[in-house]
Each structure stands twice: as C-alpha cells, then as structure tokens.
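[agent] plan:
  1. take the single chain provided in the ticket
  2. run structure prediction with default settings
  3. attach structure tokens to the ticket
  4. add a short note for the reviewer (M.T.)
[agent] executing step 1
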Amino acid sequence: MDIQTVFGIFLEIVTSSAILYILAGTVLGVIFGALPGLTATLAIVILLPFTYGMDPSSGIAMLIAAYIGGISGGVVASVLIGMPGTPSSITTVYDGYPMAKQGLGGKALAIGATGSLIGSLVSLFFLVTLAPQLAAVALRFSPIEYTMVILFAFITVAGLTGNFLKSLLVSIVGLGIALIGFDPLNSTERNPFGLEIFAGGITPIPAMIGLFVVSKVFIELEGGTQNTIIPKISLKNIYPKFKELRASWTNYLRSSLIGTAIGILPGIGGTLANFVSYDQAKKASKEPETFGKGNVDGLIASETANNAVIAGNLIPLLALGIPGDSVSAILLGGLQIQGLQPGPLLFQNQPEFIVNLFISFFLAVIAMYVFMMTIGMRVFPKMLAFKKMYLLPFVLVMSIAGAYNIGYRVEDIWIMVIFGIIGYLFHKLDFPTLPIVITLLLGATFEMNLRTSLILTEGSLVPFFTRPISLIFVVLTLITIAFIIRSTLKEKRLQNKAS
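[agent] step 2 finished; step 3 output follows
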C-alpha cells in the first residue's frame, strides 16, 4: 500500500468519529488500569458490547486503545499505593513505590508513562514490519499446521502459568466445556448436562466476564472497603529531560525488545516480560544494590517491557489467530464478533483494516501519554481514594449488561454467574484461569482443524510429523514439555534441599 493511501486513512481517522472512540477507549483503559481491582481486561470486556453497532475499524481501534491505556495505567496504583494496578506492573512496585515515599511520586509516574510510550512505539515498529511477513508464511498453513500451532499454544500456556499439572487439568476442562453445544461438522447437539442454558453451547465472552470480572468482585468483597493512604506527590520538574532519556536509551531499547519478543510467544504475556526486563536491567546496572530502593532504571525496565508486550501479542493474534494472553484472547472474540477472522487472509483481504489498526494503535499511544502527563497526574490520587463499596456495584451492573448484550439472552447472564463462581474457586484453590480462556476461545477451532486433518489424511498421523511447518511445532511442543519437566524437577530438588 502506497504512502498516499496510508496518509488518506490517517486523515480519515483523525477527522471522523473514530478518533473520539480511540480517545474514549484510551482514557477508560487508563482509568481502569489505575484503579485497584479494575484492569485492562475489564475495560475491554465492558467496551466490547458497545462495539457491535460500530464499523469494524472503529470498534477494534477502541478496544486496542483500552488495552494500551489499561496496561499503561497500571503504573499509577503501583507507584502511589505499592499495589500493582495490573499483573504486568508487579516489578513497577519495587522501585516506583519507594520513589513515591521519597516524595518523587510525580517523577515516577512521568518516567513510567515515558517508558510506556517508548515501549509501545518500538513494539509497534515490529508489529508493522513482522506481522505481514509472518502472515505470508502462515498462508502455507493447512488444517494440519493449525492443529499443531494451537496444540503448541495450549501446552505453552499450561507450562507457563504456574503449576503445570493444574494448568493442564484446567486446559482439559476448558476443552471439554468448548465441546458443549453443536458438533461443527454434523450439527449434532452435545449437551451432557441437559440444561437449557447450555443448549447453544458456552458463549466465550460471558464466560470470560465471569472468570475475570465477577470472580474479582467476589474476591474484592472479602477484602473489605477500607481506603488506602496515598503519599503526597509533587508535580514539579517531572518531565524527563533529554539527557536522562539518552542516559537510559539502552535500557529502553533492551526492555522494548524483551517485551516484544515475549509478547509474540503465545500464552506468556506481560508478567514474565516484566520480570525478565527488570532482571536484565539490574544485571546491566552499575548499582544493582539500589534496585528495590527507588532506582529509576528498574521502573523504566518494568513499564517499557509491559507495554512492548501489547504489539508483540498482536503479531500472533493478527497473523495466526492465536491470542498471547487473556486480553488478546478477548480481542480475538471482538474480531470474530465483527465478522473478521484473524490470520493470513486478513492481511490479504482486508489491507485497509490492518493499516487502520496500525494508525489507531499509534494514535492511542500518543493519547495515553498526553492524558497521563496532564490530567492523569492530578486526578488519579483522588480517584484512588474512592471506596470499593461504590466501585464494585457499578462494575457488577456493567458486567451483567455486557453479558446480556452479547446475544440478548438471559442464559448468558447465568453463564457469567457460573463462571464467576468458577473463577472465584480457581482463585481460592490457586488454579490459573488463562488456560480455560484460551481453550474456550480456540477449542472449537482446534477440534475443527484436528478432525478435518484426520479426514484429509484418512486417519493417519504421519503427515503431522512429515510436513516441515507442522514438524517445527511438534519439535517446539516437545521442547516445551521437556523444559517444563526439567523446571519442575529442579524446583522440587530446591524445595527438598530447603526442607
């Protein structure tokens, strides 16, 4: 696509209602990321029903803007109250909160926002340059390759979300739940429970609202409604100087590359990138002993990496239809609702939509930074003083409305409630929820491709091991399993020595 066409799409976005949707999504995402208990996932889930009446470009742009805003907003709670606003901001607490207690809260917020800006833009460059090439390779995929890609994603998620056996069990349960409904090949009804609410199958979005939102409401209700004391912050001299940016450019670049690379891998997400980037910054520092006590480089590494994950996650999502974390899993649902199937054909058949998405991503990043550095600095400390007893009922009402608006079925509300209870029990029993989300969204696709593959090969498994791309993913899956076993045995040995 030529530059003139790209510029024309840019002008169309900034002069139409699309820019308002991007701004709204960004601001809402930042607010939800900044408030404890409210995450980027929740912001996207709440906005999802409102995208039905929009054109696909505007709807998806608003969701991605909320994604960017939600991850960026996590720095606020991390710095001001020492509690990660999002799971991707865990290591932000290590140096951000000590800076706030030293009276440098405003400076810490500005550094975090700048890291989010740079990480997002660097990863956007790789999204623009790598995603089309990956999509071109994916054009060679048959149902056999897609089966192995999805299987690799299932194993990767199960192995990188805590206890492997628990994650594997959750994945199997998720696959079983995904089979409820109608057979994709012969339309036979499959409803082992015989309940009316499951007659049409499990709708993924209400289930995700239950797992991520309703369960969180239950958890937060247990914690009481007390306010948290917020340190006083100064807003003087908070903008990073060019000299400071130049001194930390290797940290920005390294953290951006780490976040992008980890984001591309299915099922890993921003939390791992957060830790890896922080660890590498500490190892590269001349003063590693100051990390955890208010070191600026630690804050930069954390916030740069978790935002770089966003565009990294979008690469496999757009090119292969494989979500990298729970947020991109919801984006996959949003694309499917708009009648768009992520994959190589999306680049081939919808080039203007792809360019629109890239430009919207850029505009959302700029909007996030401007909002954080102006209004956000003054408003967030007051917002964090709100009691949860005012926030949680609002969240619950919006969740019910969101679940119902998916298909205007009361059954979807019950599905939301059931999965809210499941999510609460998973939290209590320390079971991960991401594997069940991935299997709910990709289970039907996995079944369709697997059964189609077996039909094409007349029941033979040999082509799964002889076709080059399929064999690559077989090897990657085996390596992942071997790595998981090795890590598990090593952890048990360390536990035995400690005991």
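[agent] step 4 note for reviewer: The mean pLDDT is 81.
[agent] ticket updated
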